[in-house]
Specification:
Layout (H helix, E strand, L loop, with lengths): L1 E3 L1 H8 L6 H13 L4 E4 L1 H14 L2 H12 L4 E4 L3 H14 L3 H13 L3 E2 L3 H7 L5 E2 L11
Parallel strand pairs: 1-2, 1-4, 2-3, 4-5
Length: 143
Amino acid sequence: MIVTDASVWVSRFLPEDSFHQASRAWLIETATAGVALVAPTIMLAEVSGSIARRTGNEQLGYQIVQQIRQLPTLQLITVDDTLGQLAAQVASSYRLRGADAVYLAVAQRLQIPLVSWDREQLDRAAALVTTYQPDEAPGPAEK
């Protein structure tokens, strides 16, 4: 199991993104190996909105989210009051943006690594969990 930030999903679906190839390769390799890709439910809105903004195509963002939801290895975590409180504490303690703190709270609660392209998120989250960029993450056999 590994928490996968929206930045990885967005770059995977945007060929013009500088991280596209690395994200695509890592997600395919990890999913093919059967490793659970975990994300808070807010990932859906983050990905949909980001893709729609960057492409100017509002339908594309929603279509991609529907594609992501079909992945058998994807586990979405509901942001309930308990997780929200943990995320608030993490956001304050580590000076993280709200959404970034939610991903970290999920990783901390489940005691699993966090993968992201957001360097600030990774650097600050490293105090609580193992963090990686997709191009530096261990292969599925090493997870």
